[in-house]
Write a structure and sequence with these properties.
mainly alpha; 80% helix; globular
Length: 85
């Protein structure tokens, strides 16, 4: 069961998110995953959106080129909205 779930999550990450990055953001999925590696590792190891938030903001600003105003508004809003469940 664990192997099946991890396999499905990996496929979802690579296929669904990869296609969204490629066609929605018009960026290379490989470059995107390299840039967000620290965020993915932090999120996986802590399982907490609040703990991942500072890393997400830093990576969005420095590696992805998101403006500080957008990163400072959108990322905390998204982290708070995901706490609803």
């Amino acid at each position: 069961f664990v192997v099946v779930v991890l396999g499905a999550l990996t496929l979802h990450l690579l296929l669904t998110l990869g296609l969204m990055v490629k066609f929605g953001a018009r960026r290379s999925p490989v470059e995107f995953f390299r840039a967000t590696r620290a965020v993915l590792i932090t999120a996986f190891s802590t399982s907490s959106s609040a703990a991942t938030l500072p890393t997400s903001i830093q990576v969005a600003r420095e590696r992805l080129g998101v403006s500080p105003a957008v990163a400072g508004f959108v990322l905390p809003l998204g982290a708070t909205m995901n706490m609803a469940g």
